[in-house]
User: Which sequence fits this backbone?
């Protein structure tokens, strides 16, 4: 995206041209393609995508059909950060040697799910961030290994049922908290990182834009409600995404050169129960467990307001 | 001219084993001779025996030199034509590492006299083929550190002139840049002169 | 190593340098004007990475170096770089090569002309940092062209040839150039370099493979159904088979330009030999010395060096060995659970399956974890094979030469 | 794409026709189809924004409602790619999109 282009004000500013098209085989109601459509609308044609193994990868590039209209590569599950580093270094080298036009801007975007980021791809991501490659890394987080049939990952939140954290006599879904990938990324000295939500499309797109304008690596953590793994009716993907922000279980942070902010403030929070009750993965939770999750959210909100320096997330609705 | 030189220098391939302790530069010594021979249009190889070198561990290195561009094999040298001992404390243990050829030459860094050294070393060697040098006094004076490799290279090329002094000085200046190169060149010359006098 | 004939060649124009095989490889990478280097340190390969860092640092090589956090990422990064059209290089050994295993398959499957050097080393456990060939033998089904070099000179020349081969549009497969860890990787030898003119003369830079180009977007690394996968694998196998002729012509052209060639396999005193020992890398030069000594004892022996391991040169090998009585095959790796236990011995046995006149194949395992093999050990093996031939006594299983407690 | 022999296959599984998944017919995935009531539709663009398939078409086609309001754009559904997830209907702020069972809509 050229630097003179402005931030989007509303959804009427979104370009019409699609660089990620239909005919792919993502689940009906999957929210990942919503993220990707808008990612490419921001990035434009001069973009190379490096995609980790995952739902998005297998469902959009099933030979001989591809949904992608920009150059795209998949190598493996755990090495997206490394492959993207290679793409970026090669372009840098070839520009330096005059093989490529040094003035041509090419966006390099790594796209990976939570498994490919929190877990198996963590090392390669860390290497890429620490070395400072100019790559935007987009994590679409559906909070479990959905491609292989809903197994827990380091991104699975407390209480969530998965096939490997089942609801049984001894355990009641995931009993550990989600790994704080955002803070871990920032600890690498990354200049720009943001948390986004496809329900807030314009906010998400503006964050993509800022991420691409960075000199070095940037990181996008995007919520991706999964109809199959979260067990909800396909039509509710965006509703649930919105509720995640409205209940403050998902906070739309922006970390920009040392400054933390929340781009979607919430005046009055909805009880987290409203978010949880829409999803089959939380159907087993009892009141005690729900109030534990609510407490966790309350604590987080308090922390965030302190860090940001104002009450950016308001109190719970009565 | 030492009496053994003519026959030794006429061999297709001359085999040298260097024995020192990790950190004393046995590998560098073997390489300096090989590098210099290659520079002079000969063929040579330098093989280090130990991979993970640690300070203090006995280290062997080997040099094979062919005056012609003959292909050189790469086995370790257990029965060398010339054995160079870098570390005085290994004198009595040297026999565990080598099996000197008949007519083999030994150049040992030791403060002992030749006769004493031959006795302590306990191998079969002709008296006229045995050389001792107190390398410590030379290197402490010039380098200020007990690193014996370059003085022993100097001694070696005086006794076994398969490469010229100038070439070795050029090689050592490439290996150690700047002042360290100059100092080591001086050390080599000292070692060289030590045996040239005789 | 340079034979006398080759040294007298008029085409000689390079510079003579004392280099070990690791440094020779780095020198070749510099002369090939590689664009991106990604490598992770591992003994005994590390000198390659260090030398390249220095060459890039002082401007002798204009390239990007990626300080990756693992070998898996090293190969992944060069895949990414190759996929956008850069000439790339990586290097590894042992555990590092094993860690790359997954990505090795992906590189050949994506048909990217990646070149890698391997300083061959034993595999853990227990850990051994020393030489054998277990690392590359374990990668024999990954679809890489695998060249085993016998000297620093051959390592240097083979890297240059590797780009010529890999980037040939008929091939488009990755190439591994391996050489013995320590015994070659750390041994200083005489190397004649070609210099940077090699890029114009021999390996001009031309992107012959599919790349990620924003002006002509493609999707690379797709998923296939049972309806499609098989054909890609068959195409890969065909390309690997057919690469043998490209390897030959690359070597011939190299000889025309620079006066050195290595062929696919090489023999020494094989014409009238009854018994031969086949080996790879540094063992070949040792075996030549042993051959001369054994011949002095009246034994009609010779030696063979296998240079190209994948694709396996069946016909070239057969025409060299068909008149032998006995071929001893020295493997420095163990194919666990298989009898005989030498991977190359097995390859040869299966290559000869339908041939009528063929020697007896005697598998020999030696040099595991760099267990010392001196010239007299090789001579001993010759004597034993001649004796066995005369007594018509052979071992179906491998001879584990040099294991404590086992005598032959 | 004709891929009868192994030698017809592109190198390494690469797809050289970007965005050719658009050729696929996904209509069989659908049990319900969205039907847009262009009279009710306020052209807010929300359905277009949230469609995972890019199957809401935004056409530069004028539309005049029965009450006389003129819109410059018209929204339509690309039924070849719509999988019938219902996000559009659910998110429509004016309930202008109805999900109708396929067997009913075919009649």
Assistant:
């Amino acid at each position: 995206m050229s630097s003179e282009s402005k931030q989007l004000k509303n959804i009427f500013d979104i370009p019409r041209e699609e660089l990620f098209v239909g005919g792919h085989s993502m689940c009906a109601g999957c929210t990942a393609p919503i993220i990707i459509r808008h990612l490419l609308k921001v990035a434009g044609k001069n973009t190379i995508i490096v995609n980790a193994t995952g739902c998005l990868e297998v469902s959009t590039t099933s030979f001989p059909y591809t949904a992608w209209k920009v150059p795209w590569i998949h190598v493996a599950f755990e090495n997206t950060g490394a492959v993207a580093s290679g793409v970026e270094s090669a372009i840098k080298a070839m520009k330096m040697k005059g093989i490529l036009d040094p003035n041509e801007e090419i966006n390099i975007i790594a796209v990976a799910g939570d498994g490919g980021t929190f877990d198996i791809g963590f090392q390669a991501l860390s290497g890429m961030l620490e070395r400072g490659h100019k790559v935007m890394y987009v994590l679409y987080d559906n909070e479990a290994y959905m491609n292989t049939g809903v197994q827990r990952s380091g991104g699975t939140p407390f209480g969530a049922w998965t096939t490997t954290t089942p609801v049984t006599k001894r355990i009641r879904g995931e009993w550990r908290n989600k790994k704080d990938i955002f803070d871990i990324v920032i600890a690498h000295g990354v200049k720009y990182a943001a948390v986004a939500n496809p329900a807030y499309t314009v906010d998400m797109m503006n964050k993509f834009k800022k991420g691409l304008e960075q000199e070095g690596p940037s990181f996008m953590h995007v919520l991706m409600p999964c109809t199959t793994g979260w067990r909800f009716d396909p039509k509710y993907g965006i509703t649930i995404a919105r509720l995640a922000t409205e209940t403050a279980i998902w906070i739309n942070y922006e970390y920009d050169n040392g400054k933390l902010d929340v781009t979607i403030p919430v005046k009055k929070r909805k009880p987290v129960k409203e978010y949880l009750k829409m999803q089959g993965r939380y159907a087993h939770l009892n009141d005690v467990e729900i109030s534990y999750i609510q407490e966790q959210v309350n604590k987080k909100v308090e922390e965030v307001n302190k860090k940001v320096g104002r009450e950016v997330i308001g109190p719970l609705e009565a | 001219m030492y009496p053994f030189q003519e026959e030794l220098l006429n061999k297709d391939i001359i085999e040298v084993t260097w024995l020192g302790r990790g950190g004393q530069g046995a590998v560098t010594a073997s390489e300096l001779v090989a590098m210099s021979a290659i520079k002079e249009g000969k063929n040579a190889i330098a093989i280090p025996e130990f991979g993970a070198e640690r300070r203090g561990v006995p280290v062997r290195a080997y040099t094979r030199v062919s005056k012609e561009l003959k292909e050189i094999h790469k086995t370790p040298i257990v029965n060398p034509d010339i054995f160079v001992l870098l570390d005085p404390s290994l004198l009595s243990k040297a026999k565990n590492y080598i099996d000197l050829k008949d007519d083999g030459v030994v150049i040992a860094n030791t403060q002992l006299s030749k006769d004493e050294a031959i006795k302590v070393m306990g191998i079969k060697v002709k008296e006229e083929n045995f050389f001792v040098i107190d390398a410590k006094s030379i290197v402490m004076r010039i380098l200020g550190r007990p690193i014996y490799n370059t003085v022993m290279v100097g001694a070696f090329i005086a006794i076994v002139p398969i490469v010229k002094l100038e070439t070795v000085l050029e090689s050592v200046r490439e290996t150690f840049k700047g002042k360290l190169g100059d100092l080591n060149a001086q050390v080599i010359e000292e070692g060289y002169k030590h045996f040239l006098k005789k | 190593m340079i034979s006398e004939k080759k040294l007298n060649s008029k085409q000689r124009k390079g510079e003579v340098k004392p280099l070990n095989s690791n440094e020779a490889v780095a020198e070749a990478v510099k002369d090939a004007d590689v664009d991106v280097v990604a490598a992770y340190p591992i003994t005994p390969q590390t000198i390659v990475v260090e030398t390249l860092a220095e060459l890039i640092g002082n401007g002798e090589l204009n390239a990007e170096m990626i300080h990756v956090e693992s070998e898996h990422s090293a190969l992944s990064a060069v895949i990414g770089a190759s996929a956008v059209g850069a000439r790339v290089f990586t290097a590894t050994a042992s555990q590092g090569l094993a860690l790359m295993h997954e990505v090795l398959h992906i590189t050949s499957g994506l048909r990217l002309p990646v070149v890698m050097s391997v300083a061959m080393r034993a595999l853990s456990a227990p850990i051994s940092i020393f030489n054998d060939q277990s690392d590359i033998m374990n990668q024999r089904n990954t679809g890489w062209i695998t060249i085993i070099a016998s000297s620093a000179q051959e390592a240097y020349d083979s890297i240059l040839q590797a780009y010529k081969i890999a980037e040939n549009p008929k091939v488009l497969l990755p190439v591994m150039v391996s050489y013995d860890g320590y015994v070659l990787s750390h041994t200083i030898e005489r190397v004649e370099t070609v210099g940077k003119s090699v890029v114009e003369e021999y390996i001009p830079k031309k992107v012959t493979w599919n790349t990620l180009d924003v002006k002509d977007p493609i999707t690379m690394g797709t998923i296939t159904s049972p309806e499609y996968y098989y054909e890609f694998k068959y195409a890969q196998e065909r390309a690997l088979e057919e690469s043998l002729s490209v390897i030959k012509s690359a070597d011939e052209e190299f000889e025309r330009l620079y006066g050195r060639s290595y062929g696919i396999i090489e023999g020494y005193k094989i014409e009238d030999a009854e018994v031969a020992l086949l080996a790879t890398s540094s063992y070949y030069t040792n075996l030549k010395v042993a051959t001369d000594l054994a011949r002095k004892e009246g034994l009609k022996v010779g030696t063979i060096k296998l240079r190209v391991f994948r694709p396996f040169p069946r016909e070239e090998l057969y025409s060299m060995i068909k008149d032998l009585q006995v071929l001893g095959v020295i493997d420095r790796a163990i194919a666990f659970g298989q009898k005989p236990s030498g991977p190359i011995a097995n390859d040869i046995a299966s290559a000869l399956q339908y041939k009528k006149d063929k020697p007896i194949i005697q598998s020999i395992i030696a040099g595991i974890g760099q267990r010392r093999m001196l010239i007299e050990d090789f001579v001993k093996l010759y004597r034993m094979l001649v004796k066995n031939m005369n007594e018509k006594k052979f071992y179906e299983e491998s001879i584990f030469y040099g294991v404590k407690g086992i005598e032959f | 794409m004709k891929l009868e022999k192994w030698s017809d296959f592109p190198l390494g599984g690469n797809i050289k026709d970007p965005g050719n998944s658009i050729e696929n017919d996904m209509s069989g995935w659908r049990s319900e189809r969205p039907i847009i009531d262009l009279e009710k539709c306020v052209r807010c663009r929300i359905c277009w924004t949230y469609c995972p398939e890019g199957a809401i078409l935004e056409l530069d086609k004028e539309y005049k409602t029965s009450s006389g309001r003129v819109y410059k754009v018209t929204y339509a559904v690309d039924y070849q790619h719509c999988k019938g997830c219902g996000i559009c209907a659910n998110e429509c702020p004016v309930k202008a999109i109805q999900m109708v069972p396929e067997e009913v809509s075919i009649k």
Observations:
- The longest helix of chain D spans residues 46-50.
